[in-house]
Amino acid sequence: MKRKKNSVGFQFELFQEETKSPFDKLFDIFKELITHTSGDFDEAMDWLEQLDQEYQLTDENYTLDDFVEDLKEKGYIREEAKSDGTFDKKITAKTERAIRKNALNQIFGQIRKKGAGHHKTNSSGLGDEHTGDLREFRFGDALENINITESLKNAQVNHGFGNFELTENDLIVEDTHHKAQMSTVLMIDISHSMILYGEDRITPAKKVAMALAELITTRYPKDTLDILVFGNDAWPIQLKDLPYLQVGPYHTNTVAGLQLALDLLRRKRNTNKQIFMITDGKPSCVRMPDGSYYKNSNGLDDFIVDKCYQMAAQARKLHTPITTFMIARDSYLQTFVDEFTRSNRGKAFYTGLDGLGEMIFHDYENNRKKRIR
């Protein structure tokens, strides 16, 4: 039921569920498929056609051809000419934004945009976000934070109702919290093990990255987010590259990822900095001073592991916490992540892919409240 107000009070009428158009229903599925295919339109449409045959998603009134035409008309795909005179269909920036928003709704669906893009810290005083609490005036408090009504009441109590006088000791202000900017680097493991044994770990990790990026850019626009991927080496990627991210035939050079993350953060003027690392936990590669690679995929190599511990300790000295989200449950890898976390005094979560986005948001919020100095 939904409530409708009239001149007498309220009356009730039957609630009518919002119905989606045939395009919107197919577009929801398309956004999932295009994420799994890393932006490959033709492959996504092949999958959509198979689903259509099995589940009768379309009918004679609205076909897949109609859907493709609508995608073009609405600006979600574009056509690029090939040398043989045919055309390739590519998704557009509008689709990339829709995919990020879809990931945000799936992973952080309970979050709503508010404020100007800052977070509270645990420090109160000369801040800029009202807490709802009242306190006495202190030297340096902003005049606009003075609560006139409560101050006048206080003056009447202090001086009597017949003798109005307002002094500094009568003033009551609304308490505030500081808001701090945060610079975050998100590291995504794209080594071959992220799709090993038939388990797709990269697609959910990629969706979390898109959701986090959309969250920061819409709710916390004054924060910064850098995204990097690491395999044999590490390199930064753009926000627009996320839907196209794929695993490569790489080992896992965690050290290179951390070195690049710290280098990116050194360039930020914010005091508050942090690193999120999504990985299946096993470092297996480092680059040597002569440019060669030392690789070992058999268990945990002491030489590689020690390099990781050194990077964790270096980040700690730079007051940069590392939160590791390990999406595997091997006990020997958990032992490594435990020691890595102790070296950094950071945090670690051991999880499958369920709940990963919720934990990332929770820790992002917690770090934003703590990292003010």
TrEMBL record:
CDD domains: vWFA
Pfam families cross-referenced by the UniProt entry: VWA_2
Positions of the VWFA domain: 184-282
Name used for this protein in its record: VWA domain-containing protein
Organism: Lutimonas vermicola
